[in-house]
Design brief:
CATH topology of the largest domain: Ribonuclease iii, N-terminal Endonuclease Domain, Chain A
Shape: elongated
Largest sheet: 3 strands, antiparallel
Strand order of the largest sheet: 1-2-3
Radius of gyration: 29 Å
CATH superfamily of the largest domain: Ribonuclease III domain
Structural class: mainly alpha
Helix content: 55-70%
CATH class of the largest domain: Mainly Alpha
Order of helices and strands: HHHHHHHHEEEH
Length: 257
């Protein structure tokens, strides 16, 4: 029975262990008192460190133009409890996890428990086959999450960047207005337009008004960067003043004789 569970898990995660005992340990929660000494708590600790390193390295190599703050923000999304729990459930790790009786009466396992088993699994792959295997496993399962998180942060940054640009160039703040709604009440989509000084600019769709505003801001930012392509004065510099008009010069006439 135990061998069947381990075999099914290896198939689900698309990875074969040389020493299946590492996988068995990663799938054993500390609440399972029948397996004292065989739990995944220490493996969670190691897996967390490996996961953070792999994601950080990938972000550093992939998004070379992003400052440290943006990379940190993306990483925090990718390695969050919510993201790891979602990926664990996609791999059915919650179904393979061996837990104590108090947690096994048909209840949905908490995200914290399910996220931790993903970290333990990363450690198991590392201990079984080394860092390259662990890196490949992490990226196979989280690379899409990384790109999704980066796009999410980019869109949010667009709204902030647009506000700063408009305040600097026009001395006002952009506003947003819903111009269209679509879909049933339980699954509505919204279309929002950005207004600057009452003039309509970019639009965007979203599953809620906030998301639609973010997409509208992104489109508007690209638009105004083209429309307002004249260079900005340096901080503290005054706008250049026009040259004063002068009388047109005339050639000197020879004296009359």
């Amino acid at each position: 029975m135990e061998q069947d569970r381990i075999a099914a898990c290896q198939e689900a995660i698309n990875h074969q262990f040389r020493e299946p005992a590492w996988l068995e340990k990663a799938l054993t929660h500390s609440s399972n008192r029948s397996d004292l000494g065989l739990s995944n708590e220490r493996m969670e600790f190691l897996g967390d460190a490996i996961l953070g390193m792999v994601v950080s390295e990938y972000l550093f190599q992939t998004y070379r133009g992003h400052p440290e703050g943006e990379l940190t923000a993306v990483k925090s999304i990718v390695v969050s409890e919510r993201t790891l729990a979602r990926q664990s459930r996609a791999l059915r790790l919650d179904q393979f996890l061996s837990v104590g009786r108090g947690m096994s009466h048909g209840r949905r396992l908490p995200n914290s428990v399910v996220a931790n088993v993903f970290e333990a699994l990363v450690a198991a792959v590392y201990l079984d086959q080394g860092l390259e295997a662990a890196r490949a496993f992490v990226l196979r399962n989280l690379e899409r999450e990384i790109h999704d998180a980066e796009r999410t942060k980019l869109i949010k940054n667009c709204k902030s960047a647009l506000q700063q640009l408009v305040q600097r160039r026009r001395g006002c703040t952009p506003t947003y207005r819903v111009i269209e709604e679509s879909g049933p009440d339980h699954a509505k989509s919204f279309r929002v337009v950005t207004l600057i000084e009452g003039v309509e600019y970019g639009t965007g769709w979203g599953r809620n008004k906030k998301e639609a505003e973010q997409h509208a801001a992104r489109e508007t930012l690209a638009l105004v960067k083209t429309l307002w392509s004249t260079p900005e004065p340096a901080p503290g510099a005054s706008e250049p003043k026009p040259e004063p008009e002068t009388e047109p010069k005339t050639e000197a006439k020879p004296p009359e004789t």
